């Protein structure tokens, strides 16, 4: 069987649905394919989303998919010293704790209402190439082989993306640039519903642990481990169990869901387009390298991808040269911060518990609302001059 579309989008996560929506609005024929039987399920996310980021994705808050609204974040040192960050200072993951399964379904519905078609239980298994251009997707729909011919293919197939690799785009990530995550949806715990919590240090080697509250007795409690630091299979779950046990307010709780997944925390990759192909979201490794949060960045990239793909369809130019406008567009907005955060992540992954304790303690002494990296360094210098050398390269 064969189908013909202007654009085929592989993957119905936020990146895929938002890209499809923007393209479909122009009247182009778009098909989204999703390998799972249900969009958004099972959830593989901490469900943290910041309010400012939502607007950058071109979305408005909607009670349908908001579980809880938080006022800020607690950053917790290994010795328990807690830094309180009010909303606005708290970075990419704070604002809402969402219902990610419903969020993804709402975005897919928006794309469908804009005119996009969708096929679930449909896996991309390869690409169709014609005269040096990617010209569609080889797929399997409920066991049946299917060719989907398209002028442009959008690879929005998430962390495990294959579409880019099939098209000869290098999306490989080093083990030190991947967090392997394990998370429980925990009930029967005690947690302040106004704050998301980030735990630093050896509880989660190379990354961090988190607790994002859904209400005062329920939260997503999880952690990531830098893959390069994992010694044996099953370690992320073992670390999470040890972490939960170590926290009095969590240890009495019960997990009602186990969630495992991975995120890339790499520097921006070299290329995200080719002739007839565009990669968006986790497939393009657009995740924030410090937090591992990727929903907002995928939404920002999706809008740019949509705009450039409409131009390509209008001008009938599907070349990498034209599609590079997308590449330039997302890099202009995201690249500097991604690169800076990747450098910071590299440094943070090397710090000892003692150093984390000292840093958090030093920050407590400055007015956090006004903090800049320079002020932070000054504060650390006053208390722990020996630490400043460690961070010099981040400030140049
Ligand atoms: C444990 C964990 C916690 C996280 N917590 C947060 C958080 O709190 N906040 C945040 O912002 N980000 C978080 N992230 C990252 C976030 O989930 C991703 O950045 C986000 O989902 C990226 O969206 P996407 O559309 O690019 O990819 P995805 O949401 O992964 O969507 C990709 C889709 O493609 C489909 N697919 C894959 N291969 C194929 C194929 N061959 N054929 C058809 N379909 C295919 C998949 O089934 C999936 O539906 C977390 C990730 C993990 C693993």
């Amino acid at each position: 069987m064969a189908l013909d579309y202007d654009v085929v989008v592989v993957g119905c996560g936020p990146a895929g649905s938002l890209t499809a929506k923007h393209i479909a609005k122009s009247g182009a024929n778009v098909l989204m394919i999703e390998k799972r039987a249900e969009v958004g399920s099972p959830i593989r996310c901490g469900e943290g989303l910041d309010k400012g980021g939502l607007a950058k994705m071109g979305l408005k808050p909607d009670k349908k998919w908001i579980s809880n609204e938080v006022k800020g974040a607690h950053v917790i040192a290994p010795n328990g010293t807690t830094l309180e960050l009010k909303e606005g200072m708290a970075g990419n993951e704070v604002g809402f704790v969402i219902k990610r399964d419903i969020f993804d379904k709402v975005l897919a519905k928006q794309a469908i209402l804009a005119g996009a078609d969708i096929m679930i239980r449909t896996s991309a298994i390869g690409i169709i190439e014609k005269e040096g251009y990617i010209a569609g997707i080889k797929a399997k729909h409920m066991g049946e082989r299917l060719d989907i011919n398209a002028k442009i293919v959008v690879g929005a197939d998430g962390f495990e993306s294959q579409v880019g690799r099939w098209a000869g785009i290098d999306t490989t990530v080093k083990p030190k640039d991947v967090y392997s995550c394990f998370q429980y949806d925990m009930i029967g715990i005690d947690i302040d519903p106004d704050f998301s919590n980030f735990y630093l240090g050896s509880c989660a080697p190379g990354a961090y642990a988190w607790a994002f509250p859904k209400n005062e007795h329920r939260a997503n409690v999880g952690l990531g481990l830098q893959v390069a630091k994992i010694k044996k299979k099953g370690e992320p779950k073992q670390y999470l169990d040890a972490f939960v046990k170590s926290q009095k307010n969590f240890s009495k709780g019960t997990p009602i869901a186990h969630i495992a997944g991975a995120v890339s925390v790499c520097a921006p990759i070299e290329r995200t387009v080719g002739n007839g192909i565009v990669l968006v979201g986790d497939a393009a490794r657009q995740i924030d390298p410090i937090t591992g949060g990727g929903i907002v960045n995928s939404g920002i990239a999706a809008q740019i991808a949509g705009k450039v793909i409409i131009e390509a369809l209008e001008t009938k130019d599907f070349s990498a040269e034209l599609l590079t406008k997308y590449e330039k567009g997302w890099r202009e907005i995201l690249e500097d911060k991604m690169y800076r955060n990747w450098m910071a992540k590299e440094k943070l992954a090397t710090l000892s518990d003692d150093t984390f304790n000292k840093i958090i303690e030093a920050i407590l002494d400055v007015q956090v609302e006004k903090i800049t990296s320079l002020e932070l360094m000054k504060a650390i210098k006053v208390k722990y001059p020996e630490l400043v050398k460690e961070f010099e390269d981040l400030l140049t």
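DSSP finds eleven helices and 18 strands in the chain. The chain has a mean pLDDT of 93.
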